Amino acid sequence: MKCPFCSHMDDKVIDSRMSAEGMSIRRRRECLKCGKRFTTYEYVEDTPMMVVKRNGTRKRFDREKIKEGIMKACEKRPVSLDKIEEIIEEIAKELQKKADQEVKTTRIGTMVMERLYEIDEVAYVRFASVYRRFKDVSHFRKELEKFLG
Ligand SMILES: [Zn+2]
Q: I need a surface site. Which of 25, 44, 111, 138 has the fewest CB within 10 A?
């Protein structure tokens, strides 16, 4: 693995852990050159899931893209990278249970929101505002009220 700090190609694995769902392995690595530590994830190759976008075009399900979106929403929030991985894994697993191999982006968005809602309200609202593209403020407020109770 390429070190994200110094780009050196050699490292040693300090710790490997299988996720609870058994679908990914998390590895803690130490760069042999600069000695810094980083984490990598390996995933079980599964059937390609197609994501149907709002405009009807299809793309391969890309967990990195979802991860990026969630990470953005969780910026400066007390949500760990492990927690984010857990969310994505749960979603990937749920999608695999589907009979067909297509899923709408809005469905994925909702699945992420459902989970963020329970973890961090700020991250939830951030994510929701991007994903739902709130048409107006009242809609957004309604969404806010859901967790403000
Ligand atoms: Zn390094």
A: 138
